[in-house]
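Entry 14. Two folds queued back to back today. First construct below, sequence then structure tokens.
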Amino acid sequence: MRSPPPPNQSQLPRPLQAALAVAAPTSDELIRRTASETARQTALAVSEVMRPRDEKPVVVAPAFEMTAQDEKDYKIIQFLESTGKPKFKGMGAKFLAYVKSHYAYQEQWLATNAGKEYDMNAEEHNAWYEANQPEITPEELSDGEIDMKVTERTDAVYREKIKPREDAQNAKQAFEDNLPTLAKNVTRHVVGFTREVNPALAILITDENGEPVMSKENIDKLMETDPIAGEVMDEIVRNELEPLLLELEKTTITDSEGNPVFVLNPTRSRHHAVIDQFRQHTERDILAGTNQVVDGKQFVTLQKLQDLQNKAIASGTDEEKEQRLAEITNQYWTINIDHVESSIVKSYAEKAKKLIEKQDKMAKKKYGVADTEPVPRQTAAGTPAAVPAVGRPQIPAAPAARTNGKPNAPSVSTQSEVVTTRKPVAPEEKKFAEDATSVMFGR
């Protein structure tokens, strides 16, 4: 339906807008009242914005064009409806229906009375307005506009000033709460990295069950056994491996609602960009391989899975959305954090082995040692241990499950399940984890 030209003041529906000619405040008065109301609500507003904000109701856009004044009134009515006051319940839909029928009524009258000007104040229209106009007064609209402006300013302060600080503070606290577990998981990967470089050296920093024991005594023993390998690995671990692993492990931290506290953002973090390169490399390797179907599920990239999930929740009831998401889970699998961490560990282990081999050759040349077969590294028991052959990092055939059996994908949408780390930290390990983290992360 074509909307009539913007009406002048005499054409506005009444008493919704007609009375505004008398009741509406001047610009100065509106500013004064807004400032006064803002001052009156300062304490309440500050208290309110410090709490988590409830989601606002979705504003339904009209399916027809409205005049500027009607659009303004509709926005105010939407705000009044969002306050939850019983009088304004459903008022937005009623107003839209009224405006649409009002336009149609005017067009019909103009078509029947060609050449005449529509006068909304004419007595002949009284019955129509009384039967169709929503029960909302100009004073309620005027007060609602002031309250809306106060709320918008309060929301802007919260959104721009307070919420970022809240988010940062909450993230910092969540990080500190999970730090012992993060440090323990990163330490496990450091041992895995050492094992990839030289299994014999890994024995020196683990117990009989293969669990990390990164004591000063054990680390000193490793450095004495192979100073070159120790220095190379320490450099890579501190400057490259640990920062990446820590950023990945942080994505397992969730808030009380299960949403990730930390999300990878390759455009804003150098470490995240490197992680994303490993993610892409891992996905390409799987797509190029023969193990794309695992337990009857087809492999898809992380981006493809997110696209499928977004499409599944784009329409329908909550029950239909949940059903479609469940179907996606049953049909597809994608990489998780363990895949990416495995790729990172293996890649930097290959780098370390090459650097160690290069420095070994330089040392032999400097001290006149024959450059024959590499001297086997010694195990803790003094028996030679073979150095594993250098090869391309292998990609796990299926998503690796953590202790709770739920794989975790990095930087995945909120529909994907994000889980915590592998197993709880024993109290006696807490101090070690904190000390290790202090060394690892410069805390």
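Second construct, same run, same settings:
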Amino acid sequence: MPVNQDWTRWIWASVSKWIDDRKQGTVLYLDGFDIDQVPPKDCAELRMNGPFMINPSFGYWQVDIEVNILLQITPDDEDAHKLWRIAGIYIDALTGEIPVYKYGKGTQDDQSLLGCLRIRAEKGEEIVLANFGRVDPDIEQFRSGLSAFYRLEITTDDH
């Protein structure tokens, strides 16, 4: 079976719902949405790179993605650990498996489980936090980015 055109949409919908359900009251934007708004002092933006499709054998697919969460945090004299606290919320959300459901309203969107995204341990850096510091000297905000690498394995019923 060739690549299913809905896989990418189902993966993005599942990842964005999974992270949104675990944001613990923080402000989360999805890549490409709300870009005309002025972001609040503290927020996160969710992005996805991929999928990168590998078809190592007939009827078997490896679908790799990278999930990125950009954090924008304003320093706070009353909460010196705010960056680390908020980063910890999102690291926790990225840890473990992310179920991929067939979300949507199309003919194949039956809400069933397609499979689970699993951390790619062979990458060597499963979940990475990179601190960029104060990017603009005129704006008192710090930026950090989280990256996590996942693989979804799909077996199709080709014969």
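Quick look at the second one. The chain has a mean pLDDT of 90. The radius of gyration is 18 Å.
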